[in-house]
Amino acid sequence: MESSKRSRIAVIALIFIIIIILSTGGVYYYYVKQPNFYPQETVYVYVYPQTPLSDLQKQLNTEGRMKNEATFNYLANNKDLARKMKPGRYAIVPGMNNITLIQLLLTGHQTPVRLTFNNIRTLPQLAGRLSRQLMADSLSLLQTFNNSQFLEKFGFTHETLPAMFIPNTYEIYWTVSPEKFCERMKAEYDRFWDGKRRKEAEEIGLSPVDVCTLASIVEEETNKKEEFSIVAGLYINRLKIGMKLQADPTVKYAVGNFMLRRVLNTHLGTDSPYNTYLNYGLPPGPIRLPSVQVVDAVLNYVEHNYLYMCAKEDLSGRHNFTSSGAQHAVNRANYTAALNRLKIYR
User: Fold this and answer.
1) How many CB atoms sit inside 10 A of residue 149's CB?
2) Largest CB tally within 10 Å, which of 24, 68, 234, 300?
3) How many other C-beta atoms can be found within 10 angstroms of the C-beta atom of residue 63?
4) Domains in the chain, please, with CATH?
5) In Å, what is the CA distance from 304 to each residue of 94, 312, 322?
6) Cα separation values, 218 from 11, 283, 293, 329, Å
């Protein structure tokens, strides 16, 4: 009888323990493991330094389509997330649970940005483009770009710095500092100027920065791919014989107006080291961030005897090339007449 009573007590105790375990497991699943975010596709939330938890919760509701805010808040408070979460760009995938996201936020395990920049003329324009894709603002980026002591350790000056930025798409963390961004770009620059490209530059008597500077002029002269290597060859011919480049894009850069349709005599007299109508050789640095395609066109320029180029009078964007100064004068007169007919005076 006594044994039977003890057995019943043991069974009841076991059932009670099972109930507690199941209840605990249910609560654990409900708060921790149950899927709580249901975006239609992967989305991203952004945490800045000192971002309040309430701002994150708003992003989770709107972007992450959070189903149960109470369970997230309970776990966030339990993990002291408001104080311990790290800045970053975090992916919210469909079906993600609370603990997975909170662990990402606590460890700073963010998803890299696919950072893209191309078709950039100036460093302020680059800073603006980057600030739309990174946490850093354009002012802090520009301050770094203008920090001569910082740039010196990379072997660049403010004038030559555009050559260091190779237009492409890079995977990089959203929280990267301007200084670390520049370090990454220097590493990419060194990788780009591997043995092959560096040797090709040496063979034509130019440094990598010189190649980028010339490529920037070529890219401003023409947007026709078939002309890149021809224009590059023309300017290299001029460099070889000690002739001024007389490149209109360098005058536009010196004036500060790339939109000029006509470069006038008043523009040609602009006092600037970038004005290749006044100065021999290449300007102090690139006048834009040249694309990889144009850099390679300079390294593999077409050998010819052209010394002159002028936009065609059909205004197609293509050019007439010649080795004759007299023929160039004719080409220039035809182009000028075409502009006059269309009343394009500046």
Assistant:
1) 6
2) 234
3) 15
4) 31-107 (3.30.1490), 113-192 (no CATH), 195-341 (no CATH)
5) 59, 19, 10
6) 88, 13, 11, 21
Q: How many CA atoms lie within 13 A of 43 on its CB side?
A: 18
Q: How far is CA 52 from the centre of its chain?
A: 29
- What amino acid is encoded at 233 in this protein? G
Q: Where do the DSSP E strands lie in the chain?
A: 35-37, 43-47, 88-92, 96-97, 113-117, 168-172, 308-311, 319-322
* Amino acid identity, position 82: A
Tokens of 324: 């004759």
Q: How far apart are alpha carbons 159 and 210 in whole angstroms?
A: 12
**Three-state secondary-structure class, residue 270:** coil
Q: pLDDT tens digit string along 249-298?
A: 999 999 999 989 889 999 999 999 999 999 999 999 999 999 999 999 99
Q: Are 133 and 115 in contact (CB under 8 A)?
A: yes
pLDDT at position 20: 47
**321 φ, ψ to 5°?**
-115, 145
At 57 the pLDDT is 95
Tokens found for residue 86: 């790290």
DSSP designation for 343: T
Distance (Å, whole) CA 227 – CA 232: 8
Six token digits for residue 24: 């605990």
